Amino acid sequence: MREDVHLVKRSTPQLAKLTPPQLPPVVDRPRLFKELDQLKKHHRIVWIQGPPGAGKTTLVATYLRARKLKPLWYQLDAGDADPGTWFHYLSLGMKRVAPRFKKPLPTVRPEYLAGLPIFTRRVFEQLYSRLKTPGLVVFDNYQEVPDETPFHELMREALTIIPLDTTVIVASRQPVPTALARLQADQVLAELDATHLELTLDEIKALVDLWSLSKKAVVSTQDVVSRLQARTDGWVAGVVLLLNQSETNVRQLFEAQEASSPVIFDYLAREVLATQSKDAIDVLLRTAFLPSTTVSMALELTDQPGAGRTLGRMARARYFTERRPGTEPMFQFHPLFREFLIKQAKETWSPSQVKEIQRQAGHLLEQADRVDEAFGLYQDAGQVAEMERLLLSHAPQFLQEGRVSTVEKWLQHVPADRREANPWLRYWAANCQFLRNPNNSIPLFENLFAEFTTTEDEVGKLLAWCGVMESIIYSEGDFSKLSPWIDRFEAIVPPGFNFPSEEMEARITQTMFLGMTYSRISDPTIFEWEERLQALLPHLGDPSLRVLAGWSLYSFWSWLGYAEKRKSVFRMAESWVNSTEVAPLAKAWFANAKALEGNLTGNGPQCMAAYEEGRAMIKSYGIQILPMHLQAQGISGAIFSRDYERAARLVEEIRPEAENATGLRRAGYLYVASYVAFLQGDLDKAYQYAGKHIETNLTKDCAFLDGLLGFHMGEIFIACGDLKKGENQIRHLSALCQSTPCRILDFFRNCLQAQWMLARRNDSEAIKAISDWLRIGREQDLITAPFWHPRIMARLCAKALEVGVEVDRAREVIRKLQLTPEEPVLTSEKWPWPVKIYTLGRFDLEVDHVPVEFSRKVPKGPLNLLKALIAFGGTNVSQHKLIDTLWPDSDGDAAYRSLVTTISRLRKLLRHEEAIVSKGGALSLNHEICWVDSLSVHCLIKAVDQESTNGEFNTALNLGERAAALFQGSFLPHDDESWTLTARLELQKKHAHLMNRLRDAYEQTNQSKRGPLRT
User: Fold this and answer.
1) CB atoms closer than 10 angstroms to residue 731
2) Which of 452 and 653 is assigned the larger pLDDT?
3) Strand runs labelled E in 252-318
4) 249 or 1, which is more confident?
5) CA-to-CA dists, residue 236 to 75, 206, 853, 971, angstroms
């Protein structure tokens, strides 16, 4: 068994439901046309309501013809209660109306089911945009959709967003449903009710005249019109049928006491049959079982050569038979007339004969790919075997299209004992449950696996196994449940087993690979599965499956730290997304991968842009599987721009759902909530959330997630000063590094080890860990961990630059993460400062790592302002003091204008507007942008004093030697202004004080001088 385990593309059927009726000669109704014009002018929805036979469909069709409008015509039926069915046929309808658009409308996929209102808006936004202006959509037979279905709420979403240049016309036997009442209250929707549809005397006269012309008869129109009006109350069906009766029959009806429409219709329908030949009656009764029919279908069902002529004659005579154009015209009976004919058929033939006709009609509908209608016929005929066959052959395609409700409805119509007897029926029921709630589908697939094992159904066992694995993975539950099922696989797949299709093999392979990635990444056989998946990728016909498989491989190689393989599969997936039509879910997963790649490589703009792209996809289509993963990338993207408030808002967006969730969804929320609290400096809240995360114990079976949690917890412990617990997390990470191939965990561990060693003031071990961290990052093309703290990253990079390890890589990390030094004035000149200023022994200026040279006139004014600002301490220097120093002979206003002009020129010279800060009547250098050797010396000496006082002589010695190395001569040696001399003398005193401190430090640490001391 199982040709139905892989998907087969179905042809596009010709459907009466998507085609307006082709009208015979009929009477136009200008009165109603003008009313429709007015309603369309002031309202975007027109609801035409009237009883059966009131002429609703004919009115709309004649109006379209008169106004030369070409709409999207959609005839609703009970099957449209399944949103997947509705969207499927809407897409087919738009292919006919707007063939210039090669890309079809989206159809419902399983991942959109939880967000159908959002998806509906997305589809109808595209639908309306593709209509030619003025746009028009017609929904006929609205009453056929059952009341208790989500259809009406989805229709409300569709009707709420109608653009100004588009109108929707709805024809229904029922008034506006409650779900759409708000549209009526807001005057978006206007109703044309049954009283408007009743024929006036003039319209009845026009009908009589048209009838007389077609029959070439002369009648007393005044008498006939008045009698028709009295008997029918302007009911269109009654007037048309009465005109086609014999004079005797008409007289009998006129004189009858009962005047109800059903009585008249039933009587006249019998009279219509009485005028037909025996062969014609046979054609009508048999074809009535088909919701609509072509001539070829009628010929095959009736075996009557004149079947086409009979149907054509009925349509021309307007005996409640509509002809709809197409490659092969379709004929459709009015619902009342079809119901009457089926009743007559059941009175004419035996139940077994009727069932045989229904079976034959069902086969014809199947051949025309009208399987929804075929199933209904099989159900009416009690053809359970045919129902089962149809369900099993079409369930895979229906589920791919998101038509879960249809599959569930079909399953319910199969008798319970037959469902229990056929495990494949229950297999598709389990798949429906998986799409609704993966947690609930786990035991269903487990039971099926046991049953298929007993019956030795190899394919069944394999698919049930896959169902269990996927249910565990996507239920966001406990990954430890995967391991026993991975063990069972060898027993499932016998030697030489051949998969029915490459798609199925790829699905099984990806499921095993993903399951092992989450729970058994240390198992060496995972590489065999990786190779199999890689080999299958180019041969997969489904581009969405290729992208999703690419995502699995991307995650795997990211965790293992193989940069080239990670980037290679990323480029492949990128080419598939850009060059082929893939499902929005696959595109959203790729957006997540793209954001993660930006995150890992320090490309903040890519991270945030990909997050926004994926977020838009999720919102547009109502995707529910991915939000937590993508939200985490958005939070990280916000950190690149230091927008902590936005990061907190993103956490709040997922809080209401996640706080009541279970499994990894809740664990993920606790993690990001802890992370954002940590960034905001709320260590208590960060610890609280992270502790709850640890309590869930859901990451223990996934090495990467377990290591990421350990890394984050270790940072919190170290920040809180609990170095013992921080050490425990380092040991945990070390154990993971030894037991798994996840080399990315080495990256995490060394980063955490460096923080811990710095906190313990063990510089030598900290430097080793920092060096290893940067080296591994360079080898794996990792700038930082998926969740990072700017202050911590800046501290580690500053230390690397200070001691000269992995300098180029440290500078790259700083530039990509846009880090600013934790203590700018104490930070080494090796930091990639945007502006560096040397004043000791020389005056040199570097901007963006390039020395500034003046080929012509030196800008003395801006440079003097810069020198004065530095000489006066560089921070909060009074503007009045600078004016008195630089423009002593100018009056107040002129001097102030000179200062403002010179500040502007200096900012242009430094090429960073924010390098000079003006606030509260004072100027400052921005120490996050500008580094000045003399200002750094002042701060280093102050720090030396503090560390010496605290008895930390090793630290004092390191800081002192850094300060001594900066003394390359006197302060601004070529400038002789008084304010320059004052600063120069002060620095000379500082230098002498520093030498004394260094000698003390050497003595206290029992070290000889490690370098020359300037005196």
Assistant:
1) 12
2) 452
3) 293-294
4) 249
5) 21, 12, 94, 105
Rounded to 10 degrees, the C-alpha dihedral 331/332/337/340 comes to 90
Do the bridges between strand 930-932 and strand 835-838 make them parallel or antiparallel, or are there none, so unpaired? parallel
Helix (H, G, I), strand (E, B) or coil at 411: helix
Which has the closest alpha carbon to 756: 804, 793, 786, 721? 721
Strands (E), 911-976: 916-919, 922-925, 930-932
Buried b (16+ CB within 10 A) or exposed e, 792-807: bbbbbbbbbbbbebbb
The three-point CA angle 62-65-68 to 5° equals 150
Lateral strand order in the sheet of 930-932: 850-851, 844-847, 835-838, 930-932
The model's pLDDT over 254-291, given as tens digits with 9 standing for 90+, comes to 444 444 456 566 766 776 777 788 999 999 999 999 99
Q: Give the pair of three-digit tokens for residue 402.
A: 């998101």
H/E run at residue 137: strand 135-140
Q: Say if CB 145 and CB 152 are below 8 A apart.
A: yes
Pick the more confident residue, 667 or 254: 667
For residue range 714-770, what is the model confidence (pLDDT) as tens digits? 999 999 898 999 999 999 999 999 999 999 999 999 999 999 999 998 989 999 999
Which two tokens mark 794?
């800046």
- 49: enclosing H helix or E strand: strand 45-49
* Per-residue pLDDT at 1011 exceeds 70: no
Query: Which H or E run includes 836?
Result: strand 835-838
Query: What share of residues in the chain are helix, strand, coil (percent, to 5)?
Result: 65, 5, 25
> What is the per-residue DSSP string for 148-215?
SSTHHHHHHHHHHT--TTEEEEEEESS---GGGHHHHHTTSEEEE-HHHHSPPHHHHHHHHHHHHHHH
The model's confidence at residue 231, banded by pLDDT at 50, 70 and 90, is: low
Element housing 322 (H / E): strand 321-324
Q: Rounded CA gap, 167 and 190, in Å? A: 11
